[in-house]
Each structure stands twice: as C-alpha cells, then as structure tokens.
Design goal:
With 160 residues, the chain is mostly beta strands. The protein folds into 2 domains: 82 residues; 54 residues, no CATH class. A 5-stranded antiparallel beta sheet has the order 4-3-2-1-5, with helices on one face. It has a 4-stranded antiparallel beta sheet with strand order 6-9-7-8, with no helix packed on it. The protein binds zinc ion. Zinc ion binds next to loops.
Length: 160
Amino acid sequence: MIREFTYKGEIFRTNYHGAPGHEEVFIMHMIDGEEFGEMSIDRMTEENDTDAPIEQICIDLCEKLIPEREIQVADPSAGFQWRDVKPAYQVHDGKQETTMKEKTGLPCTVTGIYLAHHDRQHKQPHEVKMVKGHKFPICNQCEDGGPSYELVKEDPNLIR
Ligand SMILES: [Zn+2]
C-alpha cells in the first residue's frame, strides 16, 4: 500500500505490505514530487514494537532519516498526518479506478509514473516512467510474465 504523510512539515511517501505488525515498511522523503532519502524496516526480522501502529513506525523511520540526510525540516513542531493523495488513476467521467493494473508486454495507454510489482518478492516495487505507446518492460526473473504495473501518477508531459 502506498500512502503519503506529512511529518515535521515535510512530505513523505510510505510503501508497506505484509501482515499488521510484521510489514516491510519503506519511507521516502519527497521534494517537489521527487523521491529523495529512503529508509526501511522489515518488522518480521528487525527489532521493533510489533504492537505499534504503522503511523508510529513511519515516525520512527523519519526520526532516523531526518538526521541521516540532514533534512532541514519545515516545521519541527508539526506531528504526523496522513495526506490526501489524488487517486492513482482517474477517468474523465468522474469514476475512479485506483487499482488499475497493466501487464507486461502490452502497450502503455496512459503516460505517467507506474509502480512495477515483481513476483516472489525478488525485487522491491519500484517506479517506472512510461510513455503512451511504449510496451511495459518484461523481467526475466518474474514468473507468469510479470511484473504488473500500477499507475501512480498520470503525467502527459513526461518525457523519457
Ligand atoms: Zn521481476
């Protein structure tokens, strides 16, 4: 699951998956929509409070990332807050489809930033910039013709 939140006035994106309390959690510091520093924890194998909510884990990761990257936070007194993010995919009749998945090998129909989901956890989900008409790249480590691609942000002006 990908969500964004603010902490100390800075914007972060988190990507977490797995059973509650045992998730693998990534956070990324966002500046002008670009990902900068990244910090992660695997709650299955690394020491942490498995009763803590995901919000607390995000805060803990921020508290490691901020000094490591020497981030000059915008508002040191501001707490944690989830951010409302535009739906990942929006069609023009007003209906929203947030779980749209595109398959490898098919041509891209919407230019933008996608998240590639690989099989068997051999690679973490990662962002891919795709231009309409280009085919979604294959991965020779994925079975069943993966990865699958999830549209994160439509961006018609994106140029490779
Ligand atoms: Zn793969």
